[in-house]
């Protein structure tokens, strides 16, 4: 059976597609020669099946993947001077941008295999994105930092094109079309309309009670999802009208008694959770950080992945979980769909939720490729 040969368009009930059988991940392909330290970010090229991986080992690796067999090999690699927190592709797929704890923004040319620094912050660069600004769709690089700034860079100048002061340190950032959303410390959310990129269009606070871990924009660019360390996800919209009609939040990566949204263990395999109640063991509840949210490029459904070592597929419009998957032997630190949504990549790696002491030598550090099925990821009312 080919790697993608198992794709299915058959129908099934919600209960059948959502149930965990334990067999769903047996055919997932492992990426060869993974990073030597924790995996912080992964992203697919928008043009071909190339995967960029940012790691705490100070390197960005690019892997080439055969979508038919899942066979993969290293294509290129370049280095920062400290752990790399974010890597993303240019729109034409010819370059990779990255930022990390060395405060630098770098760009790597896939054709020449050369990397160069194009930007500098006063503190760690937590997230980078390639964006198109204004009516002429001018392409620039956006970088968000712990120095509480968002900067735009043009490769032709060592100075930022523009700088926006943010309310707090940047923890996560994402864009879609002309929407750029920045998740900051203290639950601040800054929304930027890239038609007017030099100012914040709207400021708000996450509706979730605890620290923001990730934000991810909808493909339609009319809203975004927020994940927090409390094991919850919020579905948000830009306009007040849509927010009132369609906005909501839900629990995802949690364990209560013997049941969980994605089975977890609490003794180190996938990282310990935030204990929320403790009147008795049967009623004890654990919440696990939502580390990554990725939207399917075709269907607009999405995945959540967490410190509990599980990931799930969801339909926000139907407010429905489409599919749960078995627990993995470590936290899931990053996820990504390829350009067609037929491959879902996930990194099983230490997510630093337990601090330095939790980073054991035997902790898993792998990237897996899952061939998605319509049965798992497509909206039920669009079969």
TrEMBL record:
Keywords, ordered alphabetically: Repeat, WD repeat
InterPro entries: Apc4-like_WD40_dom (IPR024977), WD40/YVTN_repeat-like_dom_sf (IPR015943), WD40_PAC1 (IPR020472), WD40_repeat_dom_sf (IPR036322), WD40_rpt (IPR001680)
A Pfam family of this chain: WD40
WD repeats by residue range: 77-118, 118-163, 283-324
Ranges for domain Anaphase-promoting complex subunit 4-like WD40: 43-120
SMART domains: WD40
Superkingdom of origin organism: Eukaryota
Protein family membership: Belongs to the WD repeat rae1 family.
PANTHER family, per the entry: MRNA EXPORT FACTOR AND BUB3
Protein name: mRNA export factor
Provenance organism: Candida albicans P78048
Taxon lineage: Eukaryota, Fungi, Dikarya, Ascomycota, Saccharomycotina
């Amino acid at each position: 059976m080919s790697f993608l040969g198992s794709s299915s368009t058959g129908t099934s009930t919600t209960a059948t597609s959502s149930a965990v059988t334990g067999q769903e991940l047996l055919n997932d392909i492992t990426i060869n020669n993974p990073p030597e330290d924790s995996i912080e970010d992964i992203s697919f090229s928008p043009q071909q099946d190339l995967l960029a991986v940012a790691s705490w080992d100070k390197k960005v690796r690019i892997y080439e993947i055969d979508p038919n067999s899942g066979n993969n090999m290293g294509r290129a690699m370049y280095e920062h001077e400290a752990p790399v927190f974010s890597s993303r592709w240019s729109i034409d797929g010819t370059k990779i941008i990255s930022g990390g704890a060395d405060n630098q923004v770098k760009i790597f040319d896939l054709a020449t295999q050369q990397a160069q620094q194009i930007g500098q912050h006063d503190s760690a660069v937590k997230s980078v994105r390639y964006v198109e600004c204004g009516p002429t769709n001018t392409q620039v690089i956006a970088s968000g930092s712990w120095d509480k700034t968002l900067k735009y860079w043009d490769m032709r100048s060592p100075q930022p094109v523009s700088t926006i002061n943010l309310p707090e340190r940047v923890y996560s950032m994402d864009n879609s079309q002309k929407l750029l959303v920045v998740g900051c410390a203290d639950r601040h959310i800054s929304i930027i309309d890239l038609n007017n990129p030099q100012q914040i269009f709207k400021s708000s606070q996450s509706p979730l009670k605890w620290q923001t871990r990730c934000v991810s924009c909808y493909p339609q660019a009319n809203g975004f999802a927020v994940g927090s360390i409390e094991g919850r996800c919020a579905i948000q919209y830009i306009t007040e009208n849509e927010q009132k009609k369609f906005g909501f939040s839900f629990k995802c990566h949690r364990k209560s008694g013997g049941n969980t949204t994605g089975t977890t263990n609490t003794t180190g395999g996938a990282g310990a959770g935030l204990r929320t109640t403790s009147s008795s063991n049967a009623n004890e509840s654990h919440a696990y950080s939502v580390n990554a949210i990725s939207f399917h490029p075709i269907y607009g459904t999405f995945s959540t992945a967490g410190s509990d070592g599980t990931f799930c597929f969801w339909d926000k419009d139907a407010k429905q979980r489409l599919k749960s998957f078995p627990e993995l032997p470590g936290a899931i630190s990053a996820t990504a769909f390829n350009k067609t949504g037929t491959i879902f990549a996930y990194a099983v790696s230490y997510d630093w939720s337990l601090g330095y002491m939790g980073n054991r030598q035997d902790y898993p550090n792998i990237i897996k490729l899952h061939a998605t099925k319509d049965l798992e990821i497509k909206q039920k009312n669009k079969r």
